[in-house]
Amino acid sequence: MIRFFNANIPLSRPAGVILALTLLLSACAPAAASLPVSTASSIPSPTPEPAFAASHTPSPVPTYTPTPAPAFIATPSASPLPLNFIKGPLLLPAAAPDRMRMVWEWEDPAAFTITWRSRSGEPAQTSSFNVLEQPDRLVTFDFHGLQPGKVYDYTIQTRTAWFTGSFRSAPPPEADTLRFFAYGDSRSQMAEHDRVAAGMLAQIDKDPAWQSLLLHNGDFAQYGDMAESWQTEFFGDQLPRLRRLLAGMPILPAIGNHDGNGSLFLRYFPLPWQNSRYGSFDYGPAHFVVLDQYVPCQPGSSQYRWLEEDLSAAKRPWKIIMLHEPGWSAGGGHGNNRAAQELDDLFQRQGVAVVLAGHNHYYARAEVNGILHLTLGTGGAPLYTPRPSMPHVQFVYKGYGFGMFEIRGDRLYGEFLTVDGQAADRFEFQRPQ
Q: If one looks up domain 67-87+97-168 in CATH, what number appears?
């Protein structure tokens, strides 16, 4: 049993609990057929912990003054019911390394008490606040006073219900290792998406150090301007394992073409360190940059000027780009994005090491001018057939799954795992000097 999620996952009706237990006991279906797996270099034994730090000056966010608690309350003294969230809880990277942001949607006015404490024994902290009638019913809360690189248990309580979970706080900025998951294009087929989430939970069950950071390259919902589509395809009761995953590690999102005009995207992902759909932050040895391909990003545009300045100022050794439509991929669904290719000169000049994308519904690995390009559109959308003969492509796989990545010094060790836990691809990549 994974420690960071609550076995009593809160769903909106008792049948949801039965569904969650049934899904947890069921075996995953066989993975989709793959093209031949390329010869992989061996990966050394993993290091025990990842790392994180935020780079930008924190923007003002509402916080709640903590009050000392005599002891951490793992469960209430009475026997209340599990909280029935409409959405979430969902964790997001915060603006400072001593914070973690949480978002959830709640149906009625309520008085909440949130208690959190690290497993290393620091005193518990508690915040209490009231949520009154509000049009969007969305609650945003910042855990604060966190020590770097530690696992925190938390409890959310009302007078009659409760929820428990955990997360790993931001590691110190000087750390030279980092672990993270990455995938995208999870729209349309919830059963497949939940199997992908179950695969990541299984890896955390094997090694809790993977409870770190989750990257999503866009296309969360088929109809991104419709709240109903988001509710069904990303927040719904039919995704119990995804909900457990999102309550236990922060997600970093990029916007996709299916995510509409972005109003709901920004509402559900209120990242405190960005005011638009693009931004950047530091996480241990990595500087992550999230781009928005649905506003201008060519030379001369405001996004391009921001990108050039941001990459030039970045101090972390690993510069990693997240976007939706890849510049180099394996065809079959969408061609290579010309605008993304035109950023290659800037990426080379500024020492970008990795570009993570989706859009094409398969896995592909390519290398162009010393930069690693990965297509990870494997989260549940209907699959496309990749063409391994496309320029610069080194490996392809048609099937659902996710990427697992670990930075150790100047090397990145990567695997693409299928939903049944098999390594379809494994590689070692050295950061450009």
A: 2.60.40.10
